[in-house]
Amino acid sequence: MLTPDAVAFLNDLEQEFGWRRGQLLAERQTRQTRLDVGERPDFLPETREVRETAWAIDPVPTDLADRRVEITGPVDAKMMINALNSGAKVFMADFEDATSPTWQNLLEGQANLVDAYRRELSFESGEKAYRLGDDPATLVVRPRGWHLDEKHFLVDGRPMSGSLFDFGLYLFHGGRSAIDAGTGPFLYLPKLESHLEARLWNDVFVWAQDRLDIPRGTIKATVLIETILAAFEMDEILYELREHAAGLNAGRWDYIFSMIKKFRNDPSFVLPDRSAVTMTVPFMRAYTELMVRTCHRRGAHAIGGMAAFIPNRRDPEVTEQAIAKVKEDKSREAGAGCDGTWVAHPDLVPVAMAEFDSVLGDRPNQVDRRREDVEVEAGDLLDLDFPGAITTTGLATNVSVGIRYLAAWLSGTGAAAIDNLMEDVATAEISRSQIWQWLHHGVSTDDGEAITEDRVRALAGDLIGSLRDTEHPHRDRLDDARKVFEDVALGDHFVEFLTLSAYELIN
Asked: Is residue 466 part of a domain?
């Protein structure tokens, strides 16, 4: 992967755009400072014309026209093969939340992309051989977010942007292999907080395509709306990327994390247990419906959120109940106008597919459904008026999920099966940020017991003790995981991303 020409391309990419990335990250801190003193986000007056005038993104290619079910996962060979063969229309190969960014994982993942486009990807496990089928899903790649560095690749003595590293190496090798295979370099862009960050991505695309002699507009990108600030700039984000845009996605778990993080100092934004924050509560429903309306006005696809359930073959009753909830969720998304949705496990592909088939029929999408009935004001995106409690079970779950996930992440596993759910970084972020929020606002669980630092540490100690008595697959990283979790959940100051702390402990 790291050929001399590829290394030269990565160096030039970082030198050309790394400084702008730094400016945008600084602007994030400036906006956070304003939120900390009580400012509330609103639709931007300076971009009113973009929101109110008629325009559309460039047409999407044929192999992105039908996205009714997308499956996501890490970039190791076995998981990629299973996902590409799952029957889903799209597979998102994830270098971000579902991949622990060890150097080996990243480089092997990039090589796997090339092999997948060439139909040469394979994996051997004992007597079982994994091979790509005849009709694999369309491959889409998610690089890391703007906030992350790549410490293993230095440019002028400093770590390169993780976003630019992932994108640059992918386009240099995998993207050109995609074109040779008759498809294209397709991307998901995570964690954007403003249209200016989308503008930077667009400029990166133009520069990279020109440099590699790829026609402009060949790259197509779907943006995850998974921060509360991006929800106020969806039109503008599509506009900045309009030559390269394919759609928007409702990244539900990171969106909840963003709501906690951005308003962490405001007691009126304290959220209940994660299980109570469903897609039907006011602020989540408002942003999803606004996303559909915005996308369809501009000819873009609107993709719904993740179903993270993993079928439990040892407990059919648990599986039956979970499948019913997945069906209800996907039926709601299709009925609301979404053109597709996400699942984390191959067994959920037919479940989600049936719900979208019942709405779409033979149509590839429902972009023509404009949802002009939707009217969303700024206050609707911040409406937390819904029932929900902070419980002892919710507190214990946050401690358990956070520490167990971090132990997996530090061991090199970015997508971890925990309590019948496929967890990634986003749910660990919710877990630790909720505890930080509850502690700093002095709340109690619904049984009247205060949430204190000692209580959280006791739960963590009990968890570690119980896991040591089992054959836990990541038991050698439990102490590191506990330390990272307690540092970010119990510290005086809110850490923007827990992976920034944990990254120092991986190879």
From this structure: yes
Residue 163 belongs to domain spanning: 4-65+77-121+130-300+367-380
- Chain segment 193-210, per-residue pLDDT in tens: 999 999 999 999 999 999
Query: What is the reported pTM?
Result: 0.97
Q: CB–CB of 170/9 below 8 Å? A: no
Confirm whether 404 is domain-assigned: yes
Q: How far apart are the first and last CA of the chain?
A: 18
Q: Can you tell me the mean pLDDT for 331-345?
A: 97
Helix (H) or strand (E) holding 307: strand 301-307
Task: Share the mean pLDDT of the chain.
Answer: 96
Report the sign of the C-alpha dihedral through residues 316, 86, 76, 219, in that order: negative
Among 260, 270, 256, 185, CA closest to 225: 256
Query: Is position 411 within any domain?
Result: yes
Q: How far is Cα 275 from Cα 504, in angstroms, rounded to an integer?
A: 31
Task: Report yes or no: 338 and 301 within 8 Å, Cβ to Cβ.
Answer: no
- DSSP collapsed to 3 states, 346-403: HHHHHHHHHHHHHHHCCCCCCCCCCCCCCCCCHHHHHCCCCCCCCCHHHHHHHHHHHH
Residues noted as catalytic: 142, 424
